[in-house]
Amino acid sequence: MQVKNQLLNPLQRSKESQIFNTTLRTRIVGQESGVQSLVDLYQVFCAGMNSLDRPVGSLLFLGPTGSGKTRIVEAAAEILFGDSRAMIKVDCAEFQHSHEIAKLIGSPPGYLGHRETHPLITQEALAQYHTEKLKLSFLLFDEIEKASDALWSLLLGILDKARLTLGDNRLVNLSATMIFMTSNLGGSDIIELLTGTMGFAQPTDKPDKLDSKMERTATEAARKKFLPEFMNRIDKVVVFHPLRQEQLEQILEIELGMVQQRVLDTARGQFLFRVTPAARAYLLREGTDLKYGARHLKRAIERNIVYPLANLLATEQVKLGDLVCIDWDEEQGRLVFQKEGEGAVLPVQAPERRAAGAQAAQTAHTIGGRPAEVLIPNVISSKVRNYGALD
Ligand SMILES: Nc1ncnc2c1ncn2[C@@H]1O[C@H](COP(=O)(O)OP(=O)(O)OP(=O)(O)O)[C@@H](O)[C@H]1O
Ligand SMILES: [Mg+2]
């Protein structure tokens, strides 16, 4: 057989990992290297190139609070398994005392309460979110700096050999599992690096230089705190960056899109809403600051948008197909809700409560981002104000 020399392109990604990449980027703002490392691992797994005696990969996410370290894993689970909770999540803060490790792996036979303890990490638990096409599992250790010594040694075994021995001696194989660990260690040092020079983000250093400074700061903090044998077993340390103002605006957009999707998923009250720029600015003021990233944004949206909308629905001031405008009233210092139209959406059967699969988020984004483009046949102007819901 004669084969001509043919130049290959090792950078080309498969269709499935390209889709994963683009969908993840619609949900995670910035944090390029976080997204990139997840997509890389996924590609390795899809190609079947992962080693059988190690986990598919292990990533340590460092960086300030509210920058997306946990969210990126949830978003990946949403995309791949259709549910943001499709993972085993270990909140290390709950396992600070060595005896609590039994909650993770179960206690040995003969111990008091042996039968009542259901270990969190088992082969069945790892397999519970498998789909027909994807036999992959996610294991997330959140706030790893709070782990006890017992948890550390367990984790070292998992990272090294992809194996875990349960209390009753059963073996768990984690070779088809991606391990994620998060910590905000070094996060406050990063914020300090930034606040030295500015309020939100006009540092004097060039962005590249500042990025590498931030990365060094976080990695050094991790190296000081964590054992070298742990750091050496991790495939990659990814430093998440503080979110800039325009990134927070994009996150607000995504979150509002998710609320719109929730409204469209309700049984009887599917309606559209739009949020004016002034109201968005208010939500951003309420929900974000440099120190907490986007952590409070969701809460601000719940309090200021979701609760009032739920009240309007429950009292039937807003009905199926309405279009509601949410604006900021400077004089009164509060958000005002105004019905702008009817017949904005066609009634559709409420879907199964879906955990925002790829398609759902796409719809949510489109509708949440541009509800003003929806055709409004009968514009009426009944002003609906929400009293008392905004404190
Ligand atoms: N980069 C991002 N892209 C999209 N949404 C984000 C991003 N960062 C934060 N968010 C939003 O903020 C919320 C909080 O973020 P997340 O839970 O990921 O913080 P974290 O980095 O894990 O912080 P902590 O160290 O305190 O656990 C998320 O649920 C999400 O709504
Ligand atoms: Mg987190």
Please explain how this structure is put together:
The chain has 391 residues and is an alpha/beta fold. It folds into 2 domains: 15-239, 3-Layer(aba) Sandwich (Rossmann fold), CATH 3.40.50.300; 245-390, Helicase, Ruva Protein, domain 3, CATH 1.10.8.60. The chain is built from 13 helices and 11 strands. The chain has helices at 15-27, 32-46, 69-81, 102-105, 123-127, 149-161, 187-195, 207-225, 228-233, 245-265, 277-287, 297-314, 358-369; strands at residues 57-62, 88-91, 137-142, 163-165, 171-173, 177-183, 236-239, 272-275, 323-329, 334-341, 382-384. It has a 5-stranded parallel sheet with strand order 2-3-6-1-7, with helices on both faces. A 4-stranded mixed sheet has the order 8-9-10-11. A hairpin with a 5-residue loop joins strand 4 (163-165) and strand 5 (171-173). Helix 10 (245-265) runs parallel beside helix 12 (297-314) and helix 11 packs across helix 12 (297-314). The longest helix is centred in the middle third of the chain and has 21 residues, at 245-265. The termini are far apart. The structure holds adenosine-5'-triphosphate and magnesium ion (MG). Magnesium ion (MG) binds next to helix 3. Magnesium ion is lined by residues 69-70, 142, 182.
